Every structure is written in structure tokens, then in C-alpha cells.
Amino acid sequence: MKEDLPISSFKRTKTIAKSAMKISAKKALQYSKKPFMSSENYLKENNKIDNDIANILFENISLLKGTAVKIAQALTLHNMLPSSMQKELSKSYNNIKPIDKSLVIKVLKNEFKKDYLEVFEELNLEPFASASLGQVHLASSFKNKKLAVKIQYPSIDKTIQNDIKLMKKFTKFKKNILSVVEEIEEKLYDEIDYEKELQNNIWAYESFNSENIFVPKVYKKYSTKHILTSSYIEGKDLNSWLLTNPSSKNKNAIANSIFEVFIQSIFKHKKIQADPNPANYIVTPENKLALIDFGCIKEFNNEFIKNYTELLSIYKSSNKNKVLKSYMQMGLIKNIDDIDDDLFQNKILAFNKWAVEPFLTDEYKITKKYLEKGVKFADIFVNKPFLIVKDFVFLDRTFHGLFSLFEKMDVVIDMKSFRASVGLDT
Q1: pTM of this structure
Q2: What percent of the chain stands above pLDDT 70?
Q3: Which residue spans within 129-189 are E strands per DSSP?
Q4: 86, 345, 355, 393: which has the fewest C-beta neighbours closer than 10 Å?
Q5: What is the predicted pLDDT for the residue at 321?
Q6: 385 preceded by a cis bond (ω within 30 of 0)
Q7: Contacts of 91 (CB under 8 A, 6+ apart)
């Protein structure tokens, strides 16, 4: 039996509190066993308890949906959780428990003001995908076109404000996680507006749909503020496709298509798909890339892209004045004098060297070792004396999310196009 989506602040707080109590009990058990176990056995027990905690978290975010799922997705995408939790919570990309069929019928009736079988020839009431804000159903039009119908969970908009307040309270002492929550807060209200997503999808279709990259076509006549209908694309989401053990050649081709879209998005269109999680990439039976879900598009102004490009081009430099002048132009620092030699040498230059490493050769393979090096820089730009430039932090995290994906795929990325875009010479 599918559980009702808790809407009220009281019910959602109660759900989170129950989860917190269960996790606290698990952690207490974990610590109580430590004095009586060898280091090896304690590590095994620790991993088991972390897995149990991950199961508790997934069950609860699956019930809460919305904000809770978005935060779980962001934390896994940016590798901010223990590895034992990453696997379980990564299911939040497209495996959330669906709402009840009767509720689906009610939503369709409310949105279209008529029976759904007057709108579609057929519609499967069991979704083929379900995620943070809605679930997707296979349908067919009266002209026999296969359609993907995304239905927003009812009243999800009412849960956002209270959830964000609660999450900020829990994460106020973790600046890197708090900044993720604030990013999500900015995006969520865009993502629940399916009329806006329809326009975003049209932009993506016109910008990227080609022989090798597919973007579904959206249908306004079958869409509303809470329902979005597009052409159905046959294929598997990226994580499911990887489980089929595709060849290195095909994996490299898909990864490089993803990266090429990302480069064009930044430097040509100055706006990107703001949610690069694996469920938003579909691989067709012909091993071609398809892009889906344009609920939130992040736009950048010309000045930001100009400053960002210049900043990337000086990452190789060790000239303090030159580097800090570019940081100041980007808005990351107020004055060059705010940065002492120790901070410059041990933080800024170290970060720059790490950040630019993949782009200094024609091809680069993202490794776990490379990503682990970057963990120490996770909150560098959200602490004083640095000024928070939200667009910069967002783009930096998006890069990290993509690179984490490429590490998981075990692929080699062609960097020539990126280097040409920012003027990086080897």
C-alpha cells in the first residue's frame, strides 16, 4: 500500500523527527559496541550501521518527496556523504515510491477538467519513473504517438517553505551543506512550474536536438502548470545503462556528448541545465544520448562568463598579483591585501592547480584520487575572507558533479573543445 504524501508542517516535522530518533538509536548502538570490538570488526559493524541509516533516510525522503529528495540528490551528486550511504541514496534519482493510482486520476481530472481518457488514447497509471517532484507515465495520443506524461505530486509546492526552514536549522553549522540547501531553495520554485519547464524544453530542443543528441519534443495541448507531456524516448537512464556493462567506446562517446553539451551551454548559450543528475541522461538502444528534465535552467550574464573565462585562463599562473586581480574581478575577494601569503600559497594556488589539472592535456581520465584531492576545497569559497559568488560556487559544484559522474563511468574526456573555449594552452 502506498503511503500518503505528508503535506502539513506538523506531519513532515514528525516524519523527520521519527527518522532522527531511529538514526540516533543506530548511532548509540554503534558507539556502545566500539570498546568491545577489534578495529577490523568495528569497521565492518560501522559500515553495516551506516547502511541501515541510509535505508532509514531513503525510506523517509521517499515518503516526504520534494525538498528532502532534492537535498539527498545534491549531496550524493557532490559526494558529500559517506560512501556507504551514497549507493542507497542515489536511488533517489528515479526510484521514489509513487503516489496512489486514485490520486493520479484525481490530479489528471483537476488539471484537464475532464476524464484523462478524453485527453489520451491510453495512459498507464503505473509510472515508469518517479523522482523528487513528480512521476512519469507512459501514454499514447489519439494519433498513436508515444508520450511521456510527467505528473507533479499534489500540493508539493506547499511543503517547500517549511522543509527549507527545517533543513537550514539542521545544517546551519555545516556551511558547505547549508550552501547546497540554499541553492536548492532558489531552484525549487522554478522546478515546480511546468509551464516554465515547457519553455525551457523548447530552448533545449532547438539548441541541442541533433543526429547524435536527442531532446524530447513537448506538447502544449497535453500540458498544464502541473503536468508536462513530451515525446517518449526509448532507452535506459544512465545508471541503469551502466549496469548493462557497455563497451568503453560507447561509454566514452556518451560521456563526451554530455561534456560537449555542458561546454556549449556555458560558453555559447550562457545557461545550463541546473540539475545534472544521472536520471536526466537517457541512452537510447542505438547508444545515443538523450537529455530530459529541464525544470530548472541556470542563466549567467555576459560579465560573469567573461570573468569566469578569464579566471580559468589564469589558473596555471603562480603570479600573486595576476591571480588575485582575477579573483577580485570575479568578485571572490574584496581587496588583494585581504589575502596573505600563506592563504595564497596553501589554499588558492593549491585549488587552482587542482582545478586546472584536467584541462592541461588533450584527454583526461577523472579518477577517485583526483576527486578526493578536491574534498579539502569543498568549502573554501564559503568562508572569509572570500565573498560568496553564488554563480561561481554553483558552476564549481556542477563541474564536480559531472566529474564524479565521469569517474563512475570510467571514461576518458576530450578536453580540446573546453581548452579552446577558455584559451588554455598546454
Answers
A1: 0.78
A2: 72
A3: 129-130, 134-140, 146-152
A4: 345
A5: 93
A6: yes
A7: 58
Average pLDDT of 175-183? 66
Cβ(13)–Cβ(166) below 8 Å: yes
**C-alpha span between 141 and 312 (Å, rounded):** 48
Three-state SS for 66-110 is: HHHHHHHHHHHHCCCCCHHHHHHHHHHHCECCCCCHHHHHHHHHH
Q: What is the DSSP letter of 318?
A: -
Strands (E), 232-356: 236-237, 271-273, 281-283, 289-291, 297-299
Q: Given a cut of 50, is residue 333 above it in pLDDT? A: yes
Calpha distance 57→20 (Å, rounded): 9
Q: Is the pLDDT of residue 159 over 90?
A: no
First to last CA, the chain: 59
* pLDDT, tens digit, 9 for 90 and up, residues 63-98: 555 566 666 666 666 565 556 555 555 554 556 778
Place of cell 572570500: 386
Among residues of the chain, what percentage have pLDDT more than 90? Answer: 50
User: What is the amino acid identity at position 356?
Assistant: V
Rounded to 5°, angle at Cα 66 from 61 and 67: 80
Q: Identify the residue whose cell numbers are 566514452.
A: 252
Which pLDDT score is estimated for 339?
93
Q: Cα–chain-centroid distance for residue 86? A: 13
141: three-class secondary structure by DSSP? coil
Q: What CA–CA distance (Å, rounded) separates 308 from 392?
A: 8
> Side chain identity at 86, as an amino acid letter?
Q
Residue 391 corresponds to which cell in the numbers above? 554563480
CB atoms near residue 18 (< 10 Å): 12
Q: Residue 94 in 3-state DSSP?
A: coil
* Separation CA 82–CA 395 (nearest Å): 23
CB contact at 8 A, 362 and 416: yes
CA 273 to CA 261: how far, in whole Å?
10
Average per-residue pLDDT for the chain:
82
Min mean pLDDT across 22-31, 291-300, 309-318, 401-410 is at 22-31
C-alpha cell, 209: 536536438
To which residue does cell 561534456 refer? Answer: 259
Are 72 and 86 contacting, i.e. CB atoms less than 8 angstroms apart? no
Reported in sequence order, the residue ranges of 267-398 that DSSP labels E, i.e. its strands, are 271-273, 281-283, 289-291, 297-299, 363-365
Distance CA 85, CA 279 (A): 18
With both helix axes pointing from N to C terminus, report the angle between 175-191 and 390-409 in degrees, rounded to the nearest 10. 90
